[in-house]
Amino acid sequence: MARHDLQETHAVTAFAFPRSALTRRAALALAASFALAGCVSTPPAATGGDIHVMTSGGFTAAYNELRPGFERSTGRSVKTAYGASMGNATDSIPSRLGRNEPADVVILARPALDALVAQGKVVAGSQVDLVRSSIGFAVRKGAPKPDIGTVDALKRTLLAAPSIAYSASASGTYYETELLKTLGIEDQVKPKSKRILSERVGTVVARGDAALGLQQVSELLPIEGIDYIGPLPAEVQRVTVFSAGVATASKQPEAARQLIRYLNAPAAAPTIAKTGLEPMSAR
Description:
11 helices; 11 strands; globular
């Protein structure tokens, strides 16, 4: 995963607002936002400080759309840091946690999240699976779209591509350690493949620095200047589950759990699905 892979990262309890400060219209709007968020009727709690989130690129597009609704419905401000699920890049989530950057919620590939649990960085048992994410390919906007519809077509496309960009996170790790070996073309293709750190693969492709880019579909779709080709064939597809957990250093773990419930609520599923992810709450 790149800068947001990035590689390339849901019901809530309502917080109280002074009734005297609300007009009737504002009160009705607030109630509507609670309903859309799938809130249940529970006693209101007092607002608190900022919630700090670290999220990897696979869940970023969905998270960025869902976050404002949580802030409106709870009165809390959410501060976000973005980074890869794994790797030693300075902005990767493991690196950020290693520097003790503030974190209440972390959202990243499940294997990487479980590794953070083992390291004592995330609370054991707090992990919640949010989405399933598939890998896809893109080319620069307007460029011919090569065939990747079958395994044989994918092999031909990779062999013919003059340059290939892949992420430094989950999708890229699969590409460089498994996919090329499975296809039997590692020796021919790996030398012309470039691992992208701290940047979206789609951005690299958009400016013409690579002819073909591979990353989580949800990380390719938002990038302007590229054309999404499609997902890897089912026979060689690698689905990654992105999950959320509560950081052990969290100063407000209950608020962290509240945000995770919000992101995993059935009401969030349509927003998640349109970003190219499969919401786990809909399964």
